[in-house]
Amino acid sequence: MDGRGKHGNHDKMDDELKILVRKFIGSLEARESHYSRESNPHKLFLSSGSTKKKLYDQFIHEHPKFNPFVPEYVHNLRYWMFCKIFNEEFNIGIGFPRSDLCHVCELLHKREQVANRENNIEEIEQIQVEQRIHWENADVFYTAMRGAKLTDDSELILCCDFEKNFNLPITGVNKEYFSSHMNIYNFGINNLKTNQSTMFFYSENFARKGSNEVISFFVHYISQHATENTQHLTLFMDNAGGQNKNRFMFAFCQYLAYTRFETVKIIFPVPGHSFMPIDREFAVIEKKRRKLDRAIKPSDWTKFLQCAKEQNPFEIVYVQHSFTDDLQNDGTPVVIVKNYKSALEPLFLSRIPIANIRRIEFRRGIEPQIQIDHRDGLNDSLRMFKRTINAEHLLVAFNTANDCYPPGQFLSVAENSAEAVHDLLRFVDLPNSVTFYESVHP
């Protein structure tokens, strides 16, 4: 051994080096993660592009005399020594890529940077107060979800969302990178008590991604999973207006309060703070999805989804048509989308202010009660329907809603997507039994 190994005397760090390393790590721009603040309230996270090796290289670049490959300096800094200080003396982690940044958090962060640069103590204190209030609001959403498992069997508690779109076909040829894609949709509903998830899986030429679809999914789910003892329904949803947070979904919940449950609640997060258990399920899928080289047939995706989770595997439900290679029934349930929007449209007031609602509760015989600030109680009511409309009108509208799409027919896709799909199929040996692509047309 040359004396420079892990246990050699030359690798002992002198005080000057330790101080410099600590000062360097302490100066890194790190921030709190909202999602881990309760379990580890003091942990900070660096940007997702950071690695310990990159930080170590940066330190050596700034302090070249500690380079272990420069023999003139005795007290050099080895990578493992840098990691030891990083891991043992600092509560810092590497963050994940962030694609849904909270605009309030980002504005406060920018204001704080300016205030620190100008040494504006009064402004810094004001920002800290605003940040605390903002996080307190966001925490109510997560506290409510964590408490879901403590409720009794009379409550069904769900969270839901659309996953990032899948594509067909995935051939691996370089031409595909520049082509338009045909989208495959996946809407997940997660039972917070059992951690069992149901995935509504379908192609864009079967149905769209709107409130008609989401309501139809819930009609199916409740019919299959709500027991006779289930008297209360709570839904955790994000603020997507086209699918979840809209008057049609609210009317559906009022309908459920009239016909099925004693109470129906929807709880929305502060925008930008909407991480839910269903997102963890999607993360399991995404992790394995990155390793998938090819997906040529519908069955490639459905088999992938069925095997994506070993414990508590996903329940699969098709939408409008059987999502199979030959479009034939393989025993998987199929949801038929109803046109609830057309049936309900005549009942509504012309304007319903719902954008700022954080919580809404439905009960039989009274107008929905709403909450604007998560820290307050239900302190106002929401009028949705015209004065001449009563419960009977609502029941008739739901029970007589027509099918949203003509039976046996397929929706058109964008012309460039349809052309790209059939062009990419030239590069694969597609079995004659795969008739799915015959349904793809502009």
Written description of the protein model:
The chain is an alpha/beta fold. The chain folds into 3 domains: 9-94, no CATH class; 103-141; 151-439, Ribonuclease H-like superfamily/Ribonuclease H (Nucleotidyltransferase, domain 5, 2-Layer Sandwich). It has helices at 15-26, 52-62, 79-89, 103-118, 121-146, 211-225, 247-259, 277-289, 298-307, 340-344, 391-399, 415-424; strands spanning 31-32, 44-46, 92-94, 155-162, 166-168, 182-191, 197-203, 232-236, 263-267, 315-319, 334-335, 359-363, 369-371, 380-381. Strands 4, 5, 6, 7, 8, 9, 10, 11, 12, 13 and 14 form an 11-stranded mixed beta sheet that branches. A 3-stranded mixed beta sheet has the order 1-2-3, with no helix packed on it. α1 (15-26) crosses α3 (79-89) and α4 packs antiparallel against α5.
Keywords:
Nucleotidyltransferase, domain 5, alpha/beta, three-stranded mixed sheet, 14 strands, 34% helix, 442 residues, eleven-stranded mixed sheet
Helix-strand blueprint:
Layout: H1 15-26, E1 31-32, E2 44-46, H2 52-62, H3 79-89, E3 92-94, H4 103-118, H5 121-146, E4 155-162, E5 166-168, E6 182-191, E7 197-203, H6 211-225, E8 232-236, H7 247-259, E9 263-267, H8 277-289, H9 298-307, E10 315-319, E11 334-335, H10 340-344, E12 359-363, E13 369-371, E14 380-381, H11 391-399, H12 415-424
Parallel strand pairs: 2-3, 4-8, 7-10, 8-9, 10-11
Antiparallel strand pairs: 1-2, 4-6, 5-6, 6-7, 9-12, 12-13, 13-14
